[in-house]
Design brief:
Number of helices: 24
Distance between the termini: 40 Å
Helix content: 55-70%
Structural class: alpha+beta
Shape: elongated
Amino acid sequence: MTDLEEHLEIDRQKVINSVKLHLPIEVTSYTLPRNMEAYFRGIEQVFLEACHQEHLKEYIDFCLGELLTNSKKANTKRVYFKEKNLDINDPADYAVGMEHFKEETTANIDHYLELQKKEGYYIKFSMQLKDNEIIIDIKNNALLTSFEEERIQHKLATAQKYENMDEVIANVIDQSEGAGLGIIIIVLMLQKVGLTKDCFKIFCTDTETVTRITLPCDMKISAGVEIVTYEFVNMQRKLPVLRENFEEVNKIIKSGFINRNKLLECLRKDITLTLLTLKYAMEKDKKCFSLPKALEILSDQELKYIFSDSNPSSEFIPASEDLKKKWEHAYRTAFFAYNIYKNKNLLGIGFDDEGIYLLGLLNNIGSILPHTASDEQKQYVVELTDQYEDSSEKIRDILKTGSSNNYLGSIYTKKLGLSKNVYTIMNSWNMVDNIPEEHKSAANILYLAEMMQYYSEGAVEYYQIDKNILEENNIQNEEQFKTIIKQLNSRID
């Protein structure tokens, strides 16, 4: 295995996590050597496979190569013009500089690449799954001049006039910038796979030039995942329970006097025992969404029944290390969410502190249920997905790898009768741009809590976390983020 292959193998799980959590995966290079471009392509391949859009790889490979070259050339152009004491924003200087740009930079490319690095010019490649779209961005910090932008927009407009490559080659030549066919070919290739001109955009922010390709995901697969998930949840008749945690609770229940404070302390650490308690409490109060309140509602006799071996609502499962980690993740996320809420002193967001705690804990039920499925559920999933022919394996893989965890968890809580607020937030907590305004405050708390725990586990990196949510919580840098997590963890352990 080469160093590049080994590096890509290490990052494979991070790419998969980014798809699962709808987070951006981003790679930066200053000089873009061949091995780095190969690494970019490796990231692209893993990402498309994780989204089950690998059929687009051939087309995206070409687009990626062309766009990376364009970005690298733009950066080289800036240092070349600076060295020649030419103003790249002046049309006359621009014309002079471009006369010998290509031949001089090609002949001495290492020199100009080194200058780019010293000047801090970079190329960033990022991919993100948002809702049912894949967003691919190529960014560089060489802002377009007005006439560069005009030329690009002209090429994009020209691309709409042609239907095949023969027409383009016969009619399009841009001698000032080379053949000038790249952008036009990209648009034609994207149209060939059924995408519109709106799927390709070039624009500038205050600091970067961004080239964006937007790829819609296969809606047949998305629809299949929704249907199969819904049927899977309908068949979920029992809650998976870890025997070790159950026995700890059972000791408190079987004692002569039920110490409810001690019982609350045990239940708060266990996602399914909490759900079990909540399920029975809601039979008496449909609006109950607080573990302390649930324990007030339930009598001693009812608690003894709930946490007995004969309760048909629970099913004991082996406590594998993987499942223990999922239970631990849920508990720590709940603890983080509770403390974030307390520190912000928020009112009027639809949840109190105990409601936020439960939201953090229950948000992870969608990651647990597929791993504790009954044989009946597994067989039914196979039968349902087989009806989707060539998409059956892809749908099953999405359910297995966790890309549909949000939807599964939200549908399950809806089945239990929890409020619309709960299942709406659980379904879209990590889609920060699209979540309804009335749910933003609670969802942002849940988002930050989840990111803290995923970061602690090494599943996400700091740059992937939404900057606006970090700013809302007065988190300025990664060191501060680490310190907050460390302080909170010290209060758990």
